[in-house]
Predict the 3D structure of the following.
Amino acid sequence: MNRSTRFLSALLLGASFFAIFLAWRTATAPMDFADLKTVLTTTTATFGSLLGIITAGLMFTHGKFSELASELGEKTPHYISDTLPLEKIQTIGNNLLALRKSFSILITQSTVEEEKELYRRVIGKSSSIYIDFAILSDLKLKQQGLAETDLMISGMDPQLYPAYKKERHRVKKEWQILATIKQVVDTWEGSTTLVMEKNEKRTSLQQDLRSSISLLGLKEKLDKNSKQVCAEAEEILNELAEDLTKIGGQLRQERIPQLLSQMEQANTIRGNYFYFALAFIATPLFINLLVLPQLSIGTASFFQPVISITSSLSVMGIAFLLLYISKILNV
Amino acid sequence: MKKTTEEKMKTLLAKYTYPPVEVTIPILEKAGRGEEELASQIHEIDVSILSGLMKIFDLKEKNMRTVAKIFGVLLSYYGQKYEPLVLSENRFSLSVSDCPMLHVGKNVNVATRSKYCDVLCSSTAKALAKLVLGDSSRCSWDKALIRDGRKCTVAFELVKSK
């Protein structure tokens, strides 16, 4: 839950308590049945308007999503066929597996925990990129009518395969292919999105690999054992840098990270605000339209505070919808 | 296609990477040696980076202004916050609020941090003396961050020969 959601939840909770308090204060006042009917009619009309706003909100979101998805969808086939030829995917895959192997050996040779941690990071990020390329290879082969070829799965070990299955299951839409490619680039060179808050410093694979090579270079001066691994890692680093930096450059040139970030933002807004607003409208709707009309005059008078609360909730629902639409417009 | 200044800088700084101190210090401490090797490696990297930056930014003047520019670029690239304090013909000083020694493990004591702070800073000072300021320059650092201070002051001075 992010900060703004927490703030909004707190605000709503506070408003709900305030509404309950107001209702409790007025509960003792007598109420005429005609007045109660007027309240119900007004609430019904309010709900009608709210439903109209919801429909408009839904249509607007759908339009925004379609626009972004079609823009990204248009670019996807080109990436799959031209930017990522099968030979390149295979070369990158082999290099990543070689890295995993070399650094696994380095971990067993090291006795210093900090050093082991650095090598573990290299292995983890290499595995993550390998999984992403396995997904891309699978989708590419499917697109070209070579389904179930599973070219890169044979190179996976028992730890890697479940992670691949999980990630592969996640990619369902065409635009998610580009999100996978962006994930590869981000893991390799670090996220280049302009981040104002630098609270969390995550290193990239490129950075970890360069640090490892520099460290191995120093160890080489102390003992001669790490010479071969260092040279191998440097060669792999150069090859990966050439391939992945080119892919990253193309992504940025075509504004893919920005478009994906807009999709992500729109998704978050929908999740955080829309369903929240929907719940706030559905609940009073259910109470005011279905429960209250079934009650006798006496019981309805007794439930007068409920009407006040549900009416407050529906007002909050409107506020949420307006907030939601304004956020969508700013995506 | 001609590379932009940013691209040249990115390539340069990616090519020469410092060994991560948070990993290097425990290794050298365990081995009980290797400080000289570390100092020479850092010096080589410093010389390569500094001469590369001078070439990229076409910094031909060998004065404090050049040192200030190089420091600004380098510290910003590595995400370190700094504040320039004095810039004159004979003196340049700045304060930094972050230092690689703050990122080493908690089990590394102050004396060890101080020792490696000297290794790192003296290597850079030597590289700057070699490339920009010449033998008459002096560099000092107060290690305040290691001793729980908020900012560390680094100063370069040109000492007039008698």
Remarks:
- Chain B touches chain A through 20 residues (CB under 8 Å).
- The mean pLDDT of chain B is 89.
- The longest helix of chain B spans residues 110-133.
- The beta strands of chain B are 82-87, 91-96, 137-141, 152-158.
